[in-house]
Amino acid sequence: MEDLRRDVTCGELRAGDEGRTVTLNGWVHRTRDHGGVHFLNIRDRYGITQVVVAEDAPAGLQRATETAKLEYCVAVRGAVRRRPDDMVNPEMATGEIEVSAGQIEILSPCATLPFMIEERSEAREETRLKYRYLDLRSFSMQRKMALRSEVTFRIREYLRGRGFHEIETPTMIKSTPEGARDFLIPSRLHRGKFYAMPQSPQLYKQILMVSGFDRYFQIAHCFRDEDARGDRQLEHTQIDIEMSFVSKEDVFELVEGMMAHTFRRALGRELEIPFPRLAYHDAMNRFGSDKPDLRFELELGDASEVAAGSGFRVFEDTISGGGSVKALVVPGGARLSRKQIDELEGVAKTYGAKGLAWTKIGEGGLEGGISKFVGEKEAEIRSLGAATGDLVLFVADRWNTACIALGAVRSRLGRDLDLIDRDRFAFAWIVDFPLFEWDEENGTWEAAHHMFTMPQEQYIDSMEDDPGAVKGDLYDLVCNGYELASGSIRIHNPELQQRIFDIVGFSREEAENRFGFLMEAFRYGAPPHGGIAPGLDRLLMILAGEESIREVIAFPKTTAGISPMDDSPSVVDERQLEELGIRIVETEEEHS
RNA sequence: GGGGGCGUGGUGGAGAUGGUUACCACGCCGGCCUGUCAAGCCGGAGGUCGCGGGUUCAAAUCCCGUCGCUCCCGCCA
């Protein structure tokens, strides 16, 4: 190897390098054997270079050339020469030249491939994950990993420039069972006790504020033992940020600057800042989602005028029962088929709607669906913004359910009718979230975000009177229909914290047991503070134009939490379990 | 926990109203070919059609179950 170490990469040679003797190291990307002359395309991270072996090459070189199959790792030494004018390949960065091989050495052979290494692999994801090391050789994956590296670098660059310290917090911490399920780590030294993997560095970063690190960040791994999705992994990375002596305006300004910097440097794109803001209630009411996709218009309307006195029982009963009738006008939607509308109804039902009512506005009045019930209400329907040729969809239910169900229909229409501007990054802050949510099952108030969120000032005095009305100093950053970040201003006052615990029915003993150290810390001059945590994987997914975060994670797990390459999780030695004092109990099902 | 989609040589797909030897492309092996760049041409090997059971004279195809991947609901402070 010593004398065949590369002195150029496979992406850099140009016409000006003509005459140089160079050595390339890389993988055989394609071979073309013409009987006499022989071509090898050699690939590395940086590109592809064509190597030519002449028909009159020495026998040893011919043999090596014929041995070198796809994805063999090879070293090639030869002379750079310009290709004849009519042989130039304008598609290739190195297409003006080729390397005339004088020596080819096989550094490592390659078994028959499970799939071709192409710009973007066509193999099914299962196979790609099993052979992830091969999948990652593709330029498409290499680019995404490079983007990831670039983005984390630019974020660090920006935050360091703004005076932030990067501080690591432990990945083995105390379990705090509310919220998502914890991953647990058994302790050998303390049998029967467990560490937990952090769902986020939340408590530590607040402690760091007490310690006076008024600007902290960390690219932190977070773990949640919940079912995965396209935008959710058991293990993900967040850009954890916390600041002292700030209001949410400071957090917004920081994150807007960070995003603008990152998009400019990593993508060469300018973002429009500041980002628009939308109250939670308005986001739900207008878009039917707390993470609306703002790349297209299509807003939900209020159809109580249509419902009132319509004689349509479903609508009237909903209104008199305190619910809402929400409407969605689909411009030109009258051409949608019955089947397409049925599909939309299926979407609405998935989200809890009992049905999806509809009417089309024809030349001569309302047509189809519930027209015979609301036929007298054409004026009211038109005042929702509907015109001839439009389809109007309705969901009647509790306000929340009606919004969410119709919001899901809106998203579906955005895709199906191609309303989405794919080239846009539509950021927005969602603000004024309720601090508490009523838990039907347990009949209790629960923290909507987490229990350390500061209530907005005007609600503090009378919080206990109507917890449902209290809005919190918390905020989400959304982009293109994804929740990109979530944060809040925190409570730094133990008395106020205790009142929150009381409202959510959290006993003093429980609070002491779980968060005692934080409450204790807050007794020692805790600064007002707040922060946010953008999800790095989702950010990268959006930057890369992907629809799954698995595409921007080098070694992701499947939705069932399995790593097909190394086959984790796996059974462990009986001896390991014994040391930990753990016995596996079979469930009834596994017995039978 | 629930619903939808998918599972066919190494890879991706076709075959689905049951019927002889399961088709195509790429890859692999062999041969031909002085300039290609997704090279081309000729030939060849390679499959218990995810797995188990059932219906039938006969199952990739129909039925039941099960496993895996995936999308969605729930869940994810």
Per DSSP E runs of 2 or more residues, the count of β-strands stands at 22
Q: What do we call the CATH homologous superfamily of the domain at 296-416?
A: GAD-like domain
Instruction: Give the termini distance in whole angstroms.
Output: 59 Å
Average pLDDT over all residues: 93
The description of the largest β-sheet is:
8 strands, mixed
What is the subunit organization of this protein? single chain
Report the β-strand fraction as a percent range: 15-25%
Short summary of the structure?
Helices cover 30% and strands 23% of the residues.
What this model shows, in words?
By secondary structure, the chain is α+β, with helices and mostly antiparallel strands. It is 30% helix and 23% strand. The protein is built from 18 helices and 22 strands. Strand 14 and strand 15 form a beta hairpin. Helix 5 crosses helix 15 and helix 10 packs across helix 13. It starts with 20 loop residues before the first strand and ends with a helix. The protein binds one RNA strand of 77 nucleotides through strand 1, strand 2, strand 3, helix 2 and helix 10.
Topology diagram in text:
Layout (H helix, E strand, L loop, with lengths): L20 E13 L4 E7 L2 E7 L5 H9 L5 E10 L14 E12 L16 H6 L1 H4 L3 H23 L3 E2 L17 E3 L7 E3 L5 H9 L4 E9 L11 E10 L3 H20 L9 E3 H8 L12 E3 L1 H4 L5 H8 L3 E7 L7 H13 L6 E6 L2 E3 L3 H4 L3 H5 L8 E7 L1 H18 L10 E5 L4 E4 L4 E4 L26 E6 L2 E8 L4 H10 L4 H15 L6 E6 L1 H9 L29 H7 L7 H4 L1
This protein binds one RNA strand of 77 nucleotides through strand 1, strand 2, strand 3, helix 2 and helix 10.
